[in-house]
Design goal:
The structure is a single chain. With about 160 residues, this protein is mainly beta. It has a domain of about 100 residues: Jelly Rolls. A 5-stranded antiparallel β-sheet has the order 1-2-9-4-7, with no helix packed on it. The chain is globular. The termini are far apart.
């Protein structure tokens, strides 16, 4: 019998932000300044997929442009007008719009806040073990091992 009691419901804006802003090693971690994730799924003990309420300050990015080998991702815009950057180019999004990224396509993607207003969105992704992340614009590779991301250079050498 589980000993941890999870809430029935919460106001999403009241969820505490993630303690560590990013898992990326430097020189990439500092590029995530202005991004604040509020994990929602974890608050309810969800383990098969994650849900974050994410806020991007002006000029902030959601992540390095990346693609997953096994994990599907989905974003739903609540506030603001981010730019979605994919292999197809740049697309302006607005509240009520959503985008999905099928695993294994190799289509690198990220959101960029090129406005002077805050952007708020939900991001949802599964937690498939053995997933790998590729970063078409950066010398970075990631693999998900036992729920933790391990980062290396694209040639496999570790970051110090």
């Amino acid at each position: 019998m589980p000993t941890h009691k999870f809430p029935t419901a919460i106001v999403s804006a009241d969820a505490a932000p993630k303690i560590t802003p990013t898992n990326y090693p430097e020189p990439f971690a500092s590029r995530m300044a202005g991004r604040k994730k509020h994990p929602l799924g974890d608050l309810f003990g969800l383990s098969n997929f994650g849900v974050n309420l994410t806020r991007l300050a002006p000029n902030a990015v959601s992540a390095l442009r990346h693609a997953h080998s096994k994990q599907d991702e989905f974003v739903y815009i609540l506030q603001g007008q981010p730019t979605l950057h994919t292999d197809e180019g740049r697309t302006k999004l607005s509240p009520g719009m959503c985008a999905g990224f099928k695993a294994g396509t190799g289509n690198g993607h990220c959101l960029i806040n090129e406005t002077t207003d805050e952007v708020v969105y939900l991001e949802i992704g599964d937690r498939t073990s053995g997933d790998e992340g590729s970063y078409p614009d950066d010398d970075l590779k990631a693999i998900l091992i036992k729920g933790k991301w391990k980062f290396t250079h694209t040639d496999g050498t570790p970051y110090d």
